[in-house]
Amino acid sequence: MAVLAAVPAVGEGGLSMDVTVGLGGAARYGRYTPVIVSLENRGARIEGTLRVESSHIVGFHSQIGSEVHEKRVVLPTRARMRAGFAIPLSTGARPLVVRMMAGGRELIRKEIDLRSILASDRIVAVMSGGASLDFLYGLENRGSPLRLVYPHVESLPESWIGYDGVDLIVLHDIPAGKLSAPQAEAIRRWVTGGGILVVSGGLPALGHAAAGLDALLPSGITGVRMARFLGGVRGIAETRSASWKPLLEEGNLVLASGKDLGAGRIVFAAFDVAASDLADRSEPAGFWQSLLERPRSPVLNPDRSLPADEPDLKAVLASSALEFPSTGAVAVFLAVYGACVAALAWPRTLSGLKPGARCAAFASVSLAAAVAGCLLFGRVLYADAAGLVDVSVVQADPGGLARVRQDTLLAAAAPGTYEVRIASSDVAVEDGGSLSRDPSAELALEVSRGVVVRGIVLPRYGSRVLRLHAVLEFPLEASWKGGGLLLSNRTGAPLRECLVVRGGTAYSIGDAGPGQRTIGAARLETPAARTAADSLRRQLADQTIAGLDKGATWVLGWRTEPLLRVEVPASFARSVRECLVIIEVSPAPLREGSAP
Amino acid sequence: MRATNPFLQEGLAAAFGRRAFRRVYTLMVLFLAVMTVGIWPKNPIADFLRGGSPPQAFQAVSIALLLLISYLGGRIGLEEYAREDFTAAADLASLPSVPVRAVVSGKFLFAALHTVFLLCLGLPFLAVSVTVCGFRPSALGRACLLIVPPALVVRSAGIFLNLAFDLTPVPRNLALFAVMAALFAGTVVLAPSWSPILLLADPGGSSAGPLLYASFFHALLVLCLIGASFAAMSFRRRRSGG
Questions:
Q1: Which one of B117, B128, B133 has the shortest CB-CB distance to A363?
Q2: What is the pTM of this model?
Q3: What pLDDT is recorded for position A592?
Q4: Whether residues A128 and A260 fall in one domain
Q5: How close is the nearest chain B Cα to the Cα of A314, in Å?
Q6: Does any domain span residue A140?
Q7: For a designed S-S bond to B128, which of A377, A379, A580, B232 qualifies (C-beta 3.0 to 4.6 A apart)?
Q8: Which residue segment(s) compose the domain that A94 sits in?
């Protein structure tokens, strides 16, 4: 990476460009990776588009699949700027091409060979001013090889998607500056999405608040005291995190504790994890080994082409929006037309008219029926453009964030080129291809305030599936309180047709509007007859309930509006949006530091 | 509509006054209605999206309409329906007061108008299926341009056979089938790019070239058949001493 960044490309009019790919110079096959483009303009003002083009070889026939990520750029004279992207690097990735375009011309271009940075190693990113965790290479390794990287703070991504390739992040100390709020938030969202974060204690913990790391520790660090443990006298950081689960103890000292956050986990090691004399001790080695062996199932997967029998997609395809006008409707329409023709053909009907007038009467009825047929079967009963079906599953987490997985199916009867606008910019868009397995054409994503997916070319009866992933603010909590269920909904929108699911059985509790609501135990005695009236909702709810942990209690409900709003700027007669929210009921109201 | 040509008037009077014709229209509409309902897509749209093969109802209806209009038009050209209402060709040949030009122009003008009328009868069936099969409504215009000229060729062939030869019903109908086979099956094999059947099977084709070539080809055939009918009628007139 250093080599990549050291040779800036120089383009027209005094424009130069540096490109940094990967986190600390490492990236993984089949994951997203951060790409940071630095531009410097010594010439006239530039207004254009910065493009990062990734392509990869698909299948045995060596077809090229490609994706273009774009950002609009305004660069005044003598100005510098940095633009960050999160680019999917599929297996079989070809060189990245970064170019600046303005007025249809290419001002500057840089091609980056990914072979030197791409690997299938697990990546551990260590944020530290100088300490080394290279001793981790010596641990008994049961998974794929490790790769330790030490990225600079300023090159850390500000989107959780940029950390997709990382298996473990260790925050030791940040001497030069601090994490920006977006960087800290991005790490928090990455953890919620399934990442593991280790925050080091010991003396470096005293600098965590100033470095912005405190935001990642819900309890905060109250101080550091000296104590004898792990064979020496060392600093041990103290927190208020009584509800955290102890992971490593010595005597009555909790040396490391952890807390699940969404699908991931934050681990707080009270000691300095990089202390050089700990490298040979067995206790920390076991601690690290347990962390590194914990399998991380990545949320994102650029290699995946969604199979049509995937449960969410099956629910999408079962949508009533995707039905032809009924045979009965066409039979009735044609029967009426046939009756009109038969009536005109009846000898007495037009007996007084001349042949020309009779011809005109027949023709008028036929033309009127043709126009009516066009309108009825082309507009009213069947959309002449396309249909959009969104199905999203929102898994709310007690930390106030929610993981959103949304399948968007764009299907069109008539051929055309479409554009999809997604309201959020911090969203990963995976191309699920078409349902018919036709080779996908290029996909262009423009990221500004939201994401615009352009150039979706659909043939006749073509389809394109986009799977969106996001981690968003969603303050919804559910907990047991005094034998009842306390639902705290601060999302600003009601949840409709809520269900409580215990041991695989669903109990209907009605709607949950904004604010707090307590559901008495009596409501949870009669199971719901059916999970939802609508077939799409029922199918989605049934398959979600079947996949839930039966040992826990869950609340399910429907939002009227999806969290990720997707729009297609075209005249769509049909669009179906379903948003299912799931939250696991906590054993007690969630208050930091309070024991369950 | 004011028709001054007696042979045009004769045709219109038969086509919109005689029961045989009205029964033809009713049966044609009934056949197309049953066919449209029968081939209407019944599987969910998802099946077509998964399979990547759109419904073919529009193509099937338009090809059926082409064959139906051509066959009925050919039989009308042969004066198979309400034969008693039309002046026989042999009589026309022996009447020197009736100009050959008036006979030919009247019969062909009626053929053109009546072919368009038959197309109008079938238009609602195309209209209901065009969008469902994934075509823009403009595909209707393209289908009409592909149906009328070849149907007119068969109709013209029927008129020519009727004016040129005094055939009995069986050879008349055999000749009509031969013309249709040559025009529709023959072009599929020998000139696929001009074949109306193949062009109707792909109504979404973006290129206008084949459509123009096919229309030109069929127009040329119609003009040839008009000329041949004129020549045959003149020959018969001379032979009968008129």
A1: B117
A2: 0.79
A3: 41
A4: yes
A5: 9
A6: yes
A7: A377
A8: 9-118
